[in-house]
Amino acid sequence: MASASDGEWDRRSMLRGAAVVAGAAAAAPLLGGTATAQAGVSLAADQLGHADTATSEPDRIPSDTGPGGAYDRYIAKLAAEDKFSGVVLLSHRGRTVLSRSYGMADKEKGIRNHEGAAFNLYGGPFVSLSIVQLAQRGKVKLWDTVGTYLTGFAKEIAEQVRIHHLLMGTSGLSFPEHDYQRIFHGKEEQHEYYQQYTRQAKLVAAPGAGSNKPGWGADVTVQIVEAVTGMTFWDYVNKHIFGRCGMTGSAYYTRPQWLADEHIAHSYMKQADGSWVDAVRNLDKDSPSPGMAGQNNARNFVPDGGFVTAPDLVRFAEALYDGTVLDPVWADVFTSVKAPNFRGSPGFSTYGPTAHIVEGQWELARSGVHPGSSTHWSIYPDTGWVGVVLSNYDDIPLQEITGQQTQAITGASPGDGGGGG
């Protein structure tokens, strides 16, 4: 129901810019408790005096970010070699600097990708954001245990695992392997499967433990949202996040909608023989790639991650900073640094969950791959940049692409992110 873990691969994510306070357990809000943008004002962080490198020329548009620039040329070359299909978008303070679309949204029907096409998103921030919204409203407390809201879990899970642990990936829970071959034929069937699946969890490490212990619990978090609101998670996000942000092209669409709605890009899985297979039209096919072997997200009646458009992700970034989805103080709760990242990727964990420091400014992003899709989006709150990469191919050089995007925006050489790893 939720994205497989809401916290894997290169889990770089949302955050609000600035001072990390040394200490054993916490960090100060990254914008000093003030909103980054007032209503109607695009992303900026002019008050961040610490980020001299990032804010000295906040309105400058690097030449590599625009049409004909290095990043544009790089993406065009990949597309010409059939190594990229999808949309890239760069926005600065609400203004589109670069928007490019390549390849086919539906090869069978001859429909091309375009800026308004919706792609299957990997690992969006919507699970953790939903819980923080409910905390803001006083409906949940982040230190409450699983058993406060859900029944049917083992006693030690119900009494020891807290919402905070679930959001931080430190719950200590281990889940059985999914039945990836199963094809779901309705929302109720899929929902019931996840209810039973999560209750097979075992506590294999102390909640709150670091290192590489298991602990992502997005599917449990989803069920807490549902128990508190009386809505399915999909409906909650559609109404309280996508709806509030004006993300009119995005939703948790069903498989029948995926097949019928021409604005939703079909996901294409790279096969062992080098061919591309339409995931939604070929449920008997799956990915051969390590880490996704045997999987096909279209077998879910409501595919994990939902579907988003590139402009809608820009709208989401703006809404996170202007009070639309969270009050400013609660946006700080959502995006402030909680701890150094301890799972191999440099950076810092947040409820979002990971942030990086690049050339003296925060890069706040999320990347990942589903069978048939690869997605990345990032926010640079100090300078007002938002970058989006949405592809309906699952075998693209995604980390290289994101490195080129970061270099175009910040001047940092690919791989130069840092701080806290």
Automatic annotation (TrEMBL):
Keywords: Hydrolase. It holds the Pfam family Beta-lactamase. InterPro entries: Beta-lactam-related, Beta-lactam/transpept-like, Diverse_Enzym_Activities, TAT_signal. Residues 72-395 form the Beta-lactamase-related domain. It comes from the Bacteria. One of its GO terms (molecular function) is hydrolase activity. The keyword Hydrolase applies. This is Serine hydrolase domain-containing protein.
